[in-house]
# Entry
Amino acid sequence: MTSLQHLLEEVRNLKPIPAVANQLLEVVDNPDSSMEDIANVIQYDPVMTANILRTCNSAYFGLKHPAESITDAVNLLGTDQVIELVLLKSGAGTFSGRQEGYGLEEGEMWRYAVSSAVIAKQIAIRMKLENKNTIFTAALVKDIGKIILEKYVARGGRKIQDLVKKENLSFREAEKKALGIDHAELGAMIAKMWKFSPKMVKIIRHHHLADETMIKDKEVAVVYLADCITMMIGVGVGSDGLSYRFRDETIRELGLTADDVSLIIADFADNMQEIENLLRIV
# Structure
C-alpha cells in the first residue's frame, strides 16, 4: 500500500497549473461575462500573455496583422480559440514527460490528454451543453493523478497486471487494490489542493465511472465517453489503455446513438492534423 502522506508531499512539490486557467474558467462559466472580461484575466499574467501572443502570431494562424494585446488575440481568433490556447499552455509542461509506469513515452500522455479534451468538447457541442470549456479542461487534466502515481505503478506493475488478468479487475480497480488509491482519486485530491472548482474536482474523481450513479451527471458522462473513445481509436494507449470497462449505457444516457459516436470519431480523424499542429506550437 502506498502512504497517502507521502503522496500528498509529492503533490505539494508538483508544479501547479497556472492560476489564470482557474480564473478563466470562472469567468467563462459566468453567462454575463464578456470578451473583455476574458482578456482582462489573461493580460495580468505576463508569462501567459507573452506565450499566447507568440502562439497567436505564429505562422500556424497566418494572421494578416499581428496581435499586440490579449484583446487583439480574442478579437482575431475568437474567445474559444484563445481559451483553448491558455488551457493547453497551462497543461503542456505537466503532461509532456514520459510515464514509464503507464507505458507511455515522452509526449504520448500529452497527446492523449489533448485528444480526449477535443473529443469531449465535440460531444458537448453536439449535445448543446453550455459549459463546453469546463468539459474541455476537465478532460484535459483528468489524469493528473498519474503524474504522481506512475512511479508506484511502475514498481507494482506485475502485481497490477496479475490482478487485471487473474481477478478480472479493471486497471483502475487493480491500481486501487495494489496501491490503496487510484489515479482518479489522487487526481481529485490534487485538483482540490490546486483550488479547482467543485465541478472540476467531481469530474476528475469520477471520470472512470467507478460510482455508477455518476452516469446521470452529463459532464462526468461526457468526459468518461471521450476517454473511452480516445482509447478506442488508439491514441496514447499505454499499459492500462485496454484494461478499463466500457459502459455502453453511457451513450444512451447522453441521448446519443452509435451513429453519433461514429461521426465524432470521423470528425476527430479529420481534425487530427490540426491537433498535431496545436501540439507542436504549444
About this structure: The chain has one domain: 4-281. The two ends are 37 Å apart (CA to CA). The domain at 4-281 is CATH 1.10.3210.10 (Hypothetical protein af1432).
